[in-house]
């Protein structure tokens, strides 16, 4: 059991090591805290922390570096201090709703996180292949653009905005036709129907034909890339990450089968989770820290954000921003879901 002073010493050791990546001595602890005790007392505290496996020395008589147990203490302390932190102003930009393009939103979000935090970011997309379409909504977002929203039986959505000049009256008729024809079918069935030129003959040269083309494009894209990876290059120059471990991680992200097996090993999670080094359930992840956050529609998880870095990161920033982005994606998909439910 640690007393208040020893907790302060441990927090300082981890914090200093994250900032400077150098073993932390008792004199460094005294220099960077308001602990009013002697250097000998702090040295004894460091010995106890070492005995309890929160820290370990690199060499004899050197300063200490945190163990995974020490990092865990630090992360829990940081999270308890973050309850009232508003970090939205720290995010440079976030994709705005008017684009209504799911692929672009997720890709830009992954890029934003990886650049802001200098980490690797993986975001899984809502998987729609086997889901049934509950509704198709067409919205005229400006004079020359319409937005097509697909709403599935689980509340998952996909949407894109297209350049297409159609009157409001025609749009309403086309929407009614599409819902009568396609609702209740799953994505795979609709893909097959859209490939059949015979089923589209009556609409040749009409606005319905162009809408079929738009739907075909939207559905084909929804089943291509099921996750986005950005920022792996940020891990290459980190001397605390063994390059063999990094190579294995890169190979995992290159194929969906390997990646989804890797993802499943984290287990289920309803809120933010942090894994540090040996806490990972996967092999070869000891040099890494992982921060995972789901995003949802109607309390149902439809995708995950996975942020990967070395263990020496600014945990407060990485946790706060990842949680914030998860909340924004939940907000975005909830917005699309409600848009899809609008009755004409």
CATH homologous superfamily annotation of the largest domain: GAF domain
Please give the CATH class of the largest domain. Alpha Beta
CATH architecture group name of the largest domain: 2-Layer Sandwich
Shape: elongated
User: How many distinct beta strands?
Assistant: 10
> Low-confidence runs (pLDDT<50, min 5 residues)?
none
Largest sheet properties: 5 strands, antiparallel
Question: Could you describe the 3D structure shown?
Answer:
The chain is an alpha+beta fold and 344 residues long. Helices cover 47% and strands 18% of the residues. The strands form 3 sheets. The protein has a 5-stranded antiparallel sheet with strand order 7-3-10-9-8. A hairpin with a 6-residue loop joins strand 1 and strand 2. Helix 1 crosses helix 3 and helix 5 runs antiparallel to helix 13. The longest helix has 27 residues. The termini are far apart.
